[in-house]
From TrEMBL:
<keyword id="KW-0067">ATP-binding</keyword>
<dbReference type="InterPro" id="IPR009057">
    <property type="entry name" value="Homeodomain-like_sf"/>
</dbReference>
<dbReference type="InterPro" id="IPR058031">
    <property type="entry name" value="AAA_lid_NorR"/>
</dbReference>
<dbReference type="InterPro" id="IPR027417">
    <property type="entry name" value="P-loop_NTPase"/>
</dbReference>
<keyword id="KW-0547">Nucleotide-binding</keyword>
<feature type="domain" description="Sigma-54 factor interaction">
    <location>
        <begin position="315"/>
        <end position="501"/>
    </location>
</feature>
<protein>
    <submittedName>
        <fullName>Fis family transcriptional regulator</fullName>
    </submittedName>
</protein>
<dbReference type="InterPro" id="IPR029016">
    <property type="entry name" value="GAF-like_dom_sf"/>
</dbReference>
<keyword id="KW-0804">Transcription</keyword>
<dbReference type="Pfam" id="PF02954">
    <property type="entry name" value="HTH_8"/>
</dbReference>
<dbReference type="InterPro" id="IPR002078">
    <property type="entry name" value="Sigma_54_int"/>
</dbReference>
<dbReference type="InterPro" id="IPR002197">
    <property type="entry name" value="HTH_Fis"/>
</dbReference>
<dbReference type="Pfam" id="PF25601">
    <property type="entry name" value="AAA_lid_14"/>
</dbReference>
<keyword id="KW-0805">Transcription regulation</keyword>
Amino acid sequence: MSTGPVNALKDEWLTGNTDRIDVAPALLRSWERSREALGVPTNVREVPHVAEDELDQHLLDLFQAPMSRFSADLSGTGVGLLLADAQGRILGRWAADHDAWRHFDRVGTDRGAVLDESLVGTNGVGTALATGSCVQITGAEHYADMYSDAVCTGTPIRHPLTQKIVAVVTLSSGIIEGRSLLRPMVKTVADQLQQHLLDVASPQARAVFQAFVDASKAKAGAVVGFGPQGLIMQSQGAARLSSADVAVLGELVQRQSGGRFIIELSGGLTEVRLAPVETGAGAIVSLQRGRTSTSTALGPARTQLIGRSPDWMAALHAVARRREATRPVVIAGEAGVGKTSLALGLPFRSGDPGPGAHIVIDTVERTLIGGKRWLRNIAERLQGGAPVIVKGFDALDPAARLALAGLLEMSVLKGPVMLTATLRSAAEAEETAVGLGASHVWVPPLRERTADLPALWRYFTDRAMPGVGLEPHAETLGLLTGYQWPRNLKELHNVVEGLALAGKRGYVLPSDLPERIQGSRALTMIERAELEAISRALREADGNRSRAAEILGLSRATIYRKMKAYKITDS
């Protein structure tokens, strides 16, 4: 139902004409509660606020890291994220583009705003609290007129053990097409936040959280806590850190036991203090400003891996954790997604042996020197203790795979062993890993991390033409985002290199791109959100379309139609 008819129905209801009111019963009950508390909608002229000292800083710190990751995934959609406490008070807001920030400012939604239903009427925060369920309030469905151009989709976050509501997470934007997908998206976010709560509930995680709270009170700057099973906590001061910065700090925690260090983050050289938690459950990293004289310099940093999208960062963290293990890990994904780079922890170039601490063994060598000698070489390298990377495990025939699996099982591994494999799906990766007695990490394809395209473009441009500008026009970036990138990072690199060889400089126009990319339609803001939601559901369902439709709350016909429109495959 469009905003116009809803507005007319609400006007009739307000004047006492309730005979033909055709709106959802839950919405009507919310209007009734709002009228009882506020009178007519025009009585709501502004959003009330509370003082800073009334806001639950611990709750914000607890959810800061996952909320930052989720918001990065909304880049270019015009949709922002809100976190409110159980009283409807806004603790934080996150957005990845200017449209979402402007929307927040337009409706007066900022830190300290109180969106309880009794104060501003029907809305995506207060009504989710009042009903204890997921709601989507669109345009004139809001009670107050000032929200008539907004869509708010919110759901409570319940404590996984007590089921008590501890917060509300809300997706908020202007009125956009395809908003039906925002409901399954916000439910997915809430599920992950509730899992985050469960992770923190473990004794080890509680010890890390308490150390994190103590450090946050003592330090005015940024504080990041690293707990068991990939748990990350960020203080409000650490909100400025990018996901790539957090990944760099995580690498430091993996490599060092404590002390002061100088590392390179996105904002430049930064002094950090690393303090292990006494229980051994994790570590606290505090960032210092303007002090670099008494720390251990780690030396000039090699180029970091590019990207901050959530799925990429999840893969980055997963590989980092496994570098300290002696159980083999299969790093799998489509061709050209950056599997070897993830294994190395820095960009890999063909023919480059990588950093001295790593040993990269290509399965192609087996055809050159013979299977027995190839296995003997691996066996010798496994005893050295340095990380061993077997590149292209999928290219081995069944007999060679079996022989390598036997070697890994018989060997006493003294360092990490990583095997890269070009596979079609995460399910196939898991099956391959099980056959090796290994764990696995799935690397997302480029089409599912389009938020990283600008940074990747700059990286490949700097490699091809150091110091020379080659900037995609806004329309060009839209085409790059809408393209499916079947060859992933290799294809993007070839596009940039081709432009450089052709002598292109300055702005890159759509006509400068290869014809296959010119034919891709630039996605609208909400289409990008739809594409991401459907891709995530398919991954969760291991490619099962019917199951993906259930996850999203859509019909199978709708899923099939949208997969065809976006050229999404089951894998």
